[in-house]
Request: fold
Amino acid sequence: MSSLPSGHPNALGPVTRGPSKTRRSLPSSEAESVTPKPGILETAAPTEEFSFELKPREIARHLDRFVIGQAEAKKVLSVALCDHFQHVRRCLAGEEAMYYQKQNVLLLGPTGVGKTHLIRSAAELIGVPFVKADATKFSETGYVGGDVDDLVRDLVRKAGGNVKKASYGIIYLDEVDKLATRGEGGGRDVSGRGVQTNLLKLMEDGDVPIVSPNDMTGQIQSAMSTLGGAGSAQPETINTRHILFIVSGAFAGMEHLIRDRLSHSFEESLGSKSKIVRMKADDLFAQSMTADFIQYGLEPEFVGRLPVRVACHGLDTGHLFDVLRRSESSLVRQYERAFEAYGIQAEFTDAGLRHLAELAAGENTGARGLMTVCERVFRDLKFALPSSRVRSFKVTQELVADPAGGLKRLLASVRKSVSSLAKSTSRSGSET
Ligand SMILES: Nc1ncnc2c1ncn2[C@@H]1O[C@H](COP(=O)(O)OP(=O)(O)O)[C@@H](O)[C@H]1O
Ligand SMILES: [Mg+2]
Reply:
């Protein structure tokens, strides 16, 4: 995970550490004597400091710094995260709501529009252990590819072996649409369903052995430490009841299923059939319902455990321009630094950035298109300029449109200034 930029709003308060104003900090004997409130399960006395004081708007504002657009996803995600971590805070303070329903999240939308970026930025802010994996790497049996339980074990590793901390972490599973077993998605195979079934247990409430049954060395080590009496402090399993699951996928082709459903449903609010026919993929995704995911090939039980759903929109030229110009994670900083390493100052003009955004929009891969385009545009400049006398240059619209010509002109201009400098020194030399 990348390091946090300066002024990172962990300044909003040490989020996982430090005392909290709102946290109940009763001595454990006193905590035990508190009469249980209805619907509240008294759990073990708090063992660790945890404070969570962020409000949804603060999380969304933090996300605004790194992720352009996606206002609806930011809103939905901020609320789900706040709900979850308020719940965690209460659990750690010794009160657990008996009927709490976990707000697992499903993010859908095209590739490269910031789904992963959103989750990663949010997890950094909250400071909880966070694991990201692609659903495609798992298999039902775990013989080929991974076993979904490994996700939970990874979380323990991320939490530095602290099982308690890991049990409140976030698991982010990308490419869940590839687990579809039938339908338009052209699903991968029957084992996709098996993986979904295995995930069900984890998403609700399951116990996972901390040492994998396939890990012989780990098994022996754990047996040895138990014999030696050292293993008693750490539990052998981790419960997944409080782990937040966030899944995402592009669900390519699902827009057609949604359009079909809408045009058969005669929903007044959506207007005439011809309007539905003309609806864009983004608007269709925003209308997605459980039935569409099931038709796409996900198991009803799986979709059912993902109550919070939100669609991310595609990025147009304007968004991509903002990604370059405004986002704190912009690629522009990376390129500036790359040239700076050779003492070369690259100055990006707005017209240059806009043209990069226009080219990237044509790639149809969201913000990933920016990387492709920048690599292509700056390839020769990155190769030639470090060995030249060029000390600064402007990234203009002309340079982006014709990098080879731009490079030639840059090199010619330094040659010209070198030769005129040489001439003037030789002249001033002969004069003296
Ligand atoms: N909305 C956005 N705002 C700023 N940067 C973005 C945005 N979307 C994508 N990016 C950039 O593109 C990269 C890939 O995006 P990612 O979040 O991995 O896409 P996906 O939606 O496929 O998960 C990110 O690391 C980020 O740098
Ligand atoms: Mg992604």
Summary: Confidence is low (pLDDT under 50) at residues 1-47. The radius of gyration is 27 Å. The CA atoms of residues 27 and 45 lie 9 Å apart.
